Amino acid sequence: MSVGTAIVAFGGNALVTDAEHDSIPQQYDTVSRTVPPLIDMVEQGWKLVVSHGNGPQVGFILRRSELASDEVDPVPVDYAVADTQGAIGYMFVKALRNELARRGLSRPVVAVVTHSVVSLDDPAFENPTKPVGSFLEQTKATQLAAALGWTIAEDAGRGWRRTVASPRPTAILETELIRKLLDDGAIVVAVGGGGIPVSVAADGTVTGVEAVVDKDIASGLLAHDLGAELLMIPTGVPRVAIGFGTPEETWLDTITVDEARQYIASGQFGKGSMEPKVEAVADFVAGTPGATGVIGAAEEIPAILAGTSGTRIVGDAVPEPAPDVTDGGAVLLAVNGTLMRGLKLSPNMAAAGATFIRETTTEPVYRIWTINDEHPAMIRVTDGSGVAVAVEVWSVPAAGLAGILLNEPPGLSIGKVNLADGATVLGVIGEPALVEGQREISQHGGWRAYTAAEGLG
User: Would you call 12 a catalytic residue per the annotation?
Assistant: First the structure.
């Protein structure tokens, strides 16, 4: 497997091996045993992001809060997620630093407090399914649910747990910061517990949300937005199984994205356990051409990298290039600035139901300016002075196109854009008056290259 950027997403239960080993020192010991294969990956040349779950740990915080309610104010769920990001991030940073020191290596290691944008209209708020806290006997869980107003569910045959809402993330606010840290050689711990769930208003105001984002889905989103080559989800079993725990149990070696989605639709995987892992890897592979996704045991990471362990999810047959307008009523839209993956207006693409297709460039008939370093404006020219501008092509439902346009800064509009491969799609175009007195950045060939060169956030 060729190296590149990798996201390795550990589950919270991987740190709490059982009810007899849930203390903080015991969790740190587990982390310390986990990190040597990660440093092996760094030595092989991987840019590494480590993410982690926090279901048991958030549950511990909430239970302590309930027990101490007569003495101190309760801890909201989003703050409990933030607490666990700091504590578990500290565990990983310390263990990774110590393993680097043991090998005589020097590399910056940093844990990033990460925010995941969610929609307040997400139906997950009406159907809490995300397990948090310890595994309990059914009788005890039922008693606590009655006394404390919990919702509970049985978790993959291992016991009963409290459940909370788990809305789907649409963006990771720190994606570009994480990209810069990786480019600077850092090992990054991020998307802890799926990220702190927040809503973002039109004016940029951030508000915490009482929920827990699934760390596998959030890790897959971050991996996609970073353009990672590998998403690995270590879990408690060496492979994914269908018919788990039944006489028909079958372990899977390699499946396609389509097969994975068929298994999900038929209910083959636990809603709060294996299903989000398979869903996250399938979505990542489907949206990131050439990438690899794998689920397997933490202790078998070397074998996973060697291709001899784990369940791989691979892309389906590559479809023919999409036409300018699809049969489903969607249109192809080229974006050249802050609508791109991971940038500040990318949530507008998610809100419109858009799907990323590919990166490419335009024909060399455009020039591009920075508008007060807040966003670019691309304009077609006919005097031979144009350049090829880096763009992303997205498939956008026709009904969502107006919403994207209405949320664009003044002076930008939708027009036809010619791509380097000869295709003509819709695209975000600037009005000539908008660039008067502004700085031209055509020499950089695109907005990402310009912001990277200038050190802009």
Answer: yes
